Amino acid sequence: MTLEEIINYRRSVRHYKKQPIDEQKVKHCIELATLAPNSSNLQLWEFYHVINPEILMKIATACLNQESATTAQQIVVFVTRQDLYRKRAKKMMELETQNVLKNSPTLKQEKRVKSWKMYYGKIMPFLYVRFFGLFGIFRKIIVNIIGLFRPIVYQVSENDMSVVVHKTCALAAQTFMLAMANENYDTCPMEGFDSRKVKAILKLPYGAEINMIISCGIRDEQGVWGDRMRIPFDEVYKKV
């Protein structure tokens, strides 16, 4: 299919056939999801590919027994890991340093390496650190002062940074669903779930958060609820 055909094919499926889907194909779609754009390339995400029938049943229960979950052949849980920011920032700093040494003129290497070390070694840890909202308040004070003199990003509270991480993970989730559609597999992104139960089922650490749970399978004839509806385009399209 072309990209346009894939986008038109993808629907949120509420009921799947009792027909197995290829585990390796789903895994490959998750691999493609890791290529999604993400903030500062920190990749603060994890993907839990659930194929165990017993765990599938438990997650379906945590998803309030909605049919998208109870009839799913497999489930992928998209998880944010803001708590891994130091580890991921260190890895990116090492990568970008190597990129500079490999691709930049010798005379500019020292300055560019220093910039990446500042960005991933100082700025990113400063932005992502959390402590009961206090660091966020401190960051807000700083950016509001700087904003008096030049343009700056104001969304730096601890809640703001959590939103950034979840937006990033949602981009991966959308990429996954499009990749699945390309395999003629169906999906449904679910937000109706008991996050505490899901975290317990998957044994996730305290710092992890559930971004989205996506059920997978092959659509039943009644799996799509009617024709697709969208708000008229001229109501949402604003040419500036």
Outline the structure in words:
By secondary structure, the protein is an alpha+beta fold. It has a domain at 3-81 and 160-219: NADH Oxidase. It is 52% helix and 11% strand. It is built from 10 helices and 4 strands, in the order ααβααβααααβαβα. It has helices at residues 3-9, 23-33, 53-62, 67-70, 85-103, 106-128, 134-146, 158-182, 195-202, 233-236, and strands spanning 45-50, 74-80, 186-190, 209-217. The chain has a 4-stranded antiparallel β-sheet with strand order 1-2-4-3, sandwiched between helices. α2 packs across α8 (158-182). The longest helix has 25 residues, at 158-182. It starts with a helix and ends with a helix. 29% of the residues are buried. The model has no long low-confidence stretch (mean pLDDT 97).
Short description:
The model has no long low-confidence stretch (mean pLDDT 97). The chain has a 4-stranded antiparallel β-sheet with strand order 1-2-4-3, sandwiched between helices. Helix content is 52%, strand content 11%.
What are the main properties of this structure?
240 residues; alpha+beta; NADH Oxidase; four-stranded antiparallel β-sheet; 4 strands; 11% strand
CATH superfamily assignment of the domain at 3-81 and 160-219? NADH Oxidase
Report the radius of gyration as a whole number of Å.
21 Å
SS-derived structural category: alpha+beta
The number of strands is: 4
Average pLDDT, to the nearest integer? 97
Question: In which order are the strands of the major sheet placed?
Answer: 1-2-4-3
Low-pLDDT runs of 5+ residues are none
CATH class division of the domain at 3-81 and 160-219: Alpha Beta
Order of helix and strand elements from N to C terminus: HHEHHEHHHHEHEH
Instruction: Using the alpha-carbon principal axes, give the shape.
Output: globular
**What's the end-to-end separation, in Å?**
33 Å
Main β-sheet description: 4 strands, antiparallel
How many separate helices? 10
Q: Helix fraction?
A: 40-55%
